[in-house]
Amino acid sequence: MSQGHALKVAVVDDHPLFRRGITSLLDTLDGVEVVGDAATIADTLDLVGQHAPDVVLMDLDLGSESGIDATRMLTQQHPSTAVLVLTMLGDDRSLFAAMRAGAKGYLLKVASPLEVERAIHAVADGQVLFGADVAARAVAYLSGSASDTGARRFPELTDRESEVLDLVARGLDNGSIARTLVLTSKTVRNYVYSIITKLGAPDRSALIVMAREAGLGSRHGTAGA
To answer: Do 127 and 80 belong together in one domain?
Structure first.
């Protein structure tokens, strides 16, 4: 980051009062320019596409939408923009999912103004920064020593999607999975499509390889497809 360059920051949160509050805070910081705010994924992508901010402050709970999905889309479509998560969610599942989606920093909303300022500059400079509340768990995740291996594998998946993925990894077809989980084949097909989309697998075969490399599907061997 060149000296004298004001960092362009965008705020993404579905609560208008919080957006207003964090924007007011950022306006008091030297070297920071707020280029806009958004409450939905579509508006976020439009905002980033128009203003190319250096950093996006991202809430993970966007009402009916997910900040994890927004983070994934942003990092794929605008890799030069760093995503700094600012959320109330401090659980492992949310933390690890945000990291997998490409977030460069993770703060809880109880963070002090100084912590927010420091994190913005850090991620803009290409660093990875986590708040004190989650730092130890983030380091454990990055080093592969996190104790919750289930959450570490694919934390962006729901519990049901994880069940479906495990059965896919065992080689079961959609009909077999539907019978096992007492679902319709159409529902299973929708789950598989969602899993492939979230994990970025090109097809079902690649998804199986990805899942097996993560240790799924090995408990009962492989069933016929």
So the answer is: yes
Q: Is residue 148 part of a domain?
A: no
163 within domain boundaries? yes
Tell me the pLDDT tens digit for each residue of 116-166: 999 999 999 999 888 877 877 777 666 665 544 444 578 788 888 888 998
What phi, psi does 120 have (nearest 5°)? -60, -50
Residue 179 within a domain: yes
Q: What is the pTM of this model?
A: 0.65
For 198, the domain range is 157-213
Q: Which of 143, 171, 201 is the last residue of a domain?
A: 143
Structural domains of the chain, count: 2
pLDDT digits (tens, 9 = 90+) for 82-106: 999 999 988 777 888 888 889 999 9
